[in-house]
């Protein structure tokens, strides 16, 4: 009984020390880098090194938070990339919170698999992705129009014309796959500004950005075979 109590006291003391260390790192980060928005600070398996999640990226630092280590923390013995695993978890979202009325919905086959895509009509990688998506069946696709005007000045107008089309998904595919410009007026109410605000909240800085049914984030274009695999694995 005494041994159990002694072990419990030591465990609690260790937990308190770890918590104090995290608080120290947080305070030092705020003092040294007040302009950096820190989402979380977490101890790593390496003594004295802490994971810092900031603006959708992971860096590592010590107690004094003076220097940052940038790169992957790898466990070679177990063949694990700990940074990649943590980033995958940190970048997950709750897809139930997505405002689906702001997206173009298209159901293919039985529609059981689900993919949420933030896409810019003038993004070359988005066009490549759309061609791959045309080869995939049994999926429901929600396309959030996400024109990045800083890169593609005309994209917002094109996106608005696509949304205002009689058949938005057809107009989307016509433009991205067949290079056929939309003919609809861009004067209807669109969700584009709401999508841009949503994307900023979700730390979406590039297109295409996709989310699976389980909330996992995928960045960049993927081929049809790889997409089929991740769609099947998402639960």
Automatic annotation (TrEMBL):
It is found in: Periplasm. Keywords: Disulfide bond, Periplasm, Redox-active center, Signal. The keyword Disulfide bond applies. Residues 1-20 form the signal peptide. It comes from Acinetobacter soli NIPH 2899. Residues 107-231 form the Thioredoxin-like fold domain. Its main location: periplasm. It holds the Pfam family DsbC_N. This is Thiol:disulfide interchange protein. Required for disulfide bond formation in some periplasmic proteins. Acts by transferring its disulfide bond to other proteins and is reduced in the process. InterPro entries: DiS-bond_Isoase_DsbC/G, DiS-bond_isomerase_DsbC/G_N, DiS-bond_isomerase_DsbC/G_N_sf, Thiol:disulfide_interchange, Thioredoxin-like_fold, Thioredoxin-like_sf. Residues 17-84 form the Disulphide bond isomerase DsbC/G N-terminal domain. Belongs to the thioredoxin family. DsbC subfamily.
